[in-house]
Amino acid sequence: MQFEHIPHPSPLSDAEREAILANPGFGTNFTDHMVTIEWTDEAGWHDARVEPRAPIQLDPAAAVLHYAQEIFEGLKAYRHGDGSIALFRPDQNARRLNASADRLAMPHVPEDLFIEAIRQLIAVDGAWVPSAEGSSLYLRPFMIATEAFLGVRPAKRYKFMVIAGPAGNYFKSGAPAVSLWISDYTRAAPGGTGAAKCGGNYAASLVPTREAFSRGHDQVLFLDAVEHKWVEELGGMNVFFAFDDGRVITPPLTGTILPGITRDSLIQLLREEGLEVSEEAYSIDQWRADAESGKLVESFACGTAAVVTPIGKVAGHDGEFTIGSGGPGQLTSKVRERLVAIQRGTTADTHGWVLTV
Ligand code: PLP
Ligand code: COI
């Protein structure tokens, strides 16, 4: 597909952009352009544009504003030592977007179009990819239903967009390990949309997240909807548990958690380290018992935004427990380094995970 280009000079000076890149935070600064591609029933995907980032016009009856027909992705572009820019497993994000599209009754974005849209944005906004260790350009592809229609049925018009912004540490606290609050709320129930990356899941997680923050924790931990017993995931990350005998467990993909690309990558990397990784249900009571007995030595959260973040403490109405020393453990640090080295191109990419754009 041909992309129409509507470039414009950045409203920021180089010095202003460099100041942002030196301290990017997460999700508050954005690059100068955005990609938009339209979809209609009759024409499919068409009218692809790279244009100055600006507010978009939507009819007040647009379906996304009423019934939340919206899906999104999150991936990062990394600046390698030779100045080139690389993505990490973008094909997996394209596939997951389409799995989310299936669940939300939306059209697929062909994998090559998804990646081309990202390439086009980086081609004009490449100066926004930071080079400092620990920072990257966070890309946010998303799709919304734009048809003006208030009946409840899948819309006939959509917009796929890509925006981006420089990202540093996701967690502001700067603490060596994060603390979790076990929520009474449910994130996703069997048969629901838990495995889809749709905005509605995150809307439902805001009250639990606010509660976790107000109690002084960094993230909310969700248990399963049926028994309120099995550990599922965090507000925006998957979880892993590491034991003193070299076993590692992560909750299985039963349809209620997001199939994280970091999760999948870490399963592979940990197995290559010779560890026995199983996708297995693990209860909150067992977690506490294993942490208290010392059988469980480390736990960590993982995701694109959070990378690999040690979990130091877990708290709920029944009190709290500490994992290991409460700080980053050896395995967590090692696997994080392995992953980051592949993403940043400082070690060989033997898996074919890195795509230079
Ligand atoms: N779980 C949730 C709810 C998320 O929002 C994310 C972040 O995308 C993840 C898990 C981790 O997924 P990934 O590793 O693909 O970023
Ligand atoms: C990501 O890691 O990409 C996420 O989507 C997590 C959060 C920012 C929603």
What labels describe this entry?
nine-stranded mixed sheet, 357 residues, globular, D-amino Acid Aminotransferase, Chain A, domain 1, D-amino Acid Aminotransferase, Chain A, domain 2, 2 domains, 9 helices, binds pyridoxal-5'-phosphate, alpha+beta, binds 2-OXO-4-methylpentanoic acid
Could you describe the 3D structure shown?
- There is one protein chain.
- The relative contact order is 0.14.
- The mean pLDDT is 96.
- The protein folds into 2 domains: 164 residues, D-amino Acid Aminotransferase, Chain A, domain 1 (2-Layer Sandwich), CATH 3.30.470; 167 residues, D-amino Acid Aminotransferase, Chain A, domain 2, CATH 3.20.10.10.
- Strands 1, 2, 3, 4, 5, 6, 7, 8 and 18 form a 9-stranded mixed sheet that branches.
- A hairpin with a 7-residue loop joins strand 10 and strand 11.
- With 357 residues, it is of the alpha+beta class.
- The site of 2-OXO-4-methylpentanoic acid has 5 residues, from loops.
- Its EC number is 2.6.1.42.
Beta-strand residue fraction: 25-35%
- Cα-based radius of gyration, to the nearest Å: 21 Å
Instruction: Output the number of helix runs.
Output: 9
CATH top-level class of the largest domain = Alpha Beta
Number of domains: 2
- The backbone outline, from C-alpha atoms, is globular
Number of strands: 18
User: What CATH architecture label of the largest domain applies?
Assistant: Alpha-Beta Barrel
Unreliable segments (pLDDT under 50, ≥5 consecutive)? Answer: none
Listing every helix as H and every strand as E from the N terminus to the C terminus, the arrangement reads: EHEEHEEEHHEEEHHEEEEHEHEEEHE
Ligand identities? pyridoxal-5'-phosphate, 2-OXO-4-methylpentanoic acid
In this structure, how is the largest beta sheet organized?
9 strands, mixed
Distance between the termini: 17 Å
Q: What percent of the residues sit in helical stretches (DSSP H or I)?
A: 25-40%
| CATH-defined superfamily of the largest domain | D-amino Acid Aminotransferase, subunit A, domain 2
Arithmetic mean pLDDT? 96
Which structural category do the helix and sheet elements fall into?
Answer: alpha+beta
Could you name the CATH topology of the largest domain?
D-amino Acid Aminotransferase, Chain A, domain 2
